[in-house]
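Render this sequence as a predicted structure.
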Amino acid sequence: MTEVAFWPQRAPQRRRSILTSLIALAVLLVALGPRAIVDLHDLRCPPGSAVRAVGIAYWSVVCTPGYPGPTSTPVSRYVGLFLTNIDVRIFDADLIGETLHGPAINVRVR
């Protein structure tokens, strides 16, 4: 009876297959080269100047001396996730221009 109690126990086959799958997924993820891009830029004007729009595009602004208004404005709010080794975009979003792009292939990261 004691021989059975101290017999080396094997891990269940299901647990081993799950662990193997997780390791394979982690290796694949690293091999694909994930790259997250976050671009957050503001235009800050010097003291005595203010931001003024010069066109209809949201990013066409300039600092104008003696102009009343805010002294800074967001120019770029961009977030994206790419798999660079195979040129795949998971998503990218321009939060100021309110555009969202989903998955795509043959996308080069800028």
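Summary. Strands lie at 34-44, 49-53, 61-65, 72-83, 88-94, 99-101, 104-105. The two ends are 68 Å apart (CA to CA).
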